[in-house]
Specification:
Blueprint lengths: L3 E7 L7 H17 E7 L1 H8 L6 H15 L7 E4 L4 H13 L2 H5 L2 H13 L5 H4 L3 H4 L1 H11 L4 E3 L5 H17 L9 E3 L28 H9 L22 H8 L2 H12 L5 H28 L1 H30 L2
Parallel strand pairs: 1-2, 2-3, 4-5
Helix pairs in contact: 3-14, 4-9, 4-15, 9-10, 11-14, 12-14
The chain binds tryptophan (TRP) and iron/sulfur cluster.
């Protein structure tokens, strides 16, 4: 049986952190076996909010792909590309925008949240940056073009993207109705079961919150950041009886990164007051560092040979364009344009 199609993308935010690793990348890597995967860097989407901050865009795009490759996204299994290298997506975006009612995008709750964040971050007070651009309004339509371009059956996304994906399904259905066709699949979300890892301060992990540990951080930096992880706040001394389940960050990292036996041992010693938090986190840092050693080595290797990464992207772009061109020709026939 032919494999089903899967599309997913990430905005180029630069070096990725543990949250991306645990919440997204491990899942993407597994899905490569089961699906025909298209993984892309959403650089047009980056411009919807950061059109005036493009100084580091090219480096950020490469950094994202370096992390993907290091974690096991495999160009021999998946198609890896930059969104903007596939102009057929822009063409599909225009075509889909014609059949998308304006109020569908205007009531997209995820988009409303994004606008709120932009407004809150904006300190310039200038009209230009506080207004939603035409491009940003089209965010969910562009995302739909990304997905329908390769006729995806499934789209792995986080909860925060579900509202967008609902619009994608609606647009696919509406297109099929209008043109009396069954060309587009209605793409289904594929949610991950993996718990999201919090930042070292116990808040949501994020680059802008300065509480993240990067996949590419060196061992010393990682160890230092792990030492800042929040523990059971009611504990002052090693001999105080601890509560691992109230150890907000450190123990949850143990549960994610350490083997079962180690987790049990930590729990037991913590509860009996036989384990100090500093020692506990030193051990945790070592466990995390050994887990990431091969990933970081692989990243280093690719980083030294950045032309290889560029080649992978240009090969992926070529493959994506070829498939996209076939599809867009069929779509043009369906519309009669
Ligand atoms: N909007 C997604 C995000 O911010 C990125 C994205 C763009 C995407 N196009 C997509 C994800 C298509 C899945 C499918 O995370
Ligand atoms: Fe958390 Fe370890 Fe401290 Fe227990 S000993 S509270 S598990 S850091």
């Amino acid at each position: 049986m032919e494999k089903k199609n899967l599309v997913s993308g990430m905005r180029p935010t630069g070096k990725l952190h543990f949250g991306h690793y645990a919440g997204v990348l491990t899942n993407w890597v597994k899905l490569q076996e089961e699906y025909n995967c298209y993984y892309f860097v959403a650089d047009w989407h980056a411009l919807t909010t950061k059109y005036n901050q493009t100084e580091n865009l090219r480096q950020d795009k490469l950094d994202v792909v370096l992390d993907w490759l290091a974690c096991g996204i495999d160009p021999n299994k998946s198609t890896i590309y930059n969104q903007s290298d596939v102009p057929q997506i822009a063409q599909l975006h225009i075509l889909l925008s014609m059949v998308t009612p304006q109020n569908w995008v205007e009531r997209d709750p995820t988009l409303k949240d994004m606008v709120k964040i932009i407004r809150n971050n904006d300190t310039s007070g200038s009209e230009n940056t506080t207004q939603m651009s035409y491009g940003l309004l089209g965010y969910p339509v562009l995302m739909t073009a990304d997905i329908l371009m390769f006729n995806a059956n499934v789209v792995p996304v986080g909860n925060d993207q579900l509202a967008h994906l609902e619009i994608s399904r609606d647009i696919a259905r509406r297109f099929n109705n209008i043109y009396n066709t069954e060309f587009f699949n209605e793409p289904l979300p594929k949610l991950t079961q993996i718990p999201l890892l919090k930042g070292v301060d116990g808040q949501k992990m994020g680059k802008s919150f300065h509480n993240d540990i990067k996949i590419s951080d060196d061992e010393e930096t990682t160890a230092k950041k792990v030492m800042m992880a929040i523990t059971d706040r009611s504990r002052a001394r090693k001999t105080d009886l601890g509560h691992p389940d109230k150890c907000e960050v450190a123990f949850t990292y143990y549960q994610y990164f350490a083997d079962e036996q180690t987790v049990q041992q930590v729990r037991c010693e913590c509860e009996k007051g036989e384990r100090g938090c500093a020692d506990c986190k030193r051990q945790l840092g070592a466990i995390i560092n050994s887990k990431f050693a091969p990933i970081r080595a692989k990243r280093e290797e690719f980083a030294k040979d950045i032309n290889k990464v560029k080649d992978i992207l240009s090969e992926g772009g070529k493959k994506a364009r070829e498939q996209a061109q076939k599809n867009i020709e069929q779509i043009r026939d369906i519309i009669n344009i």
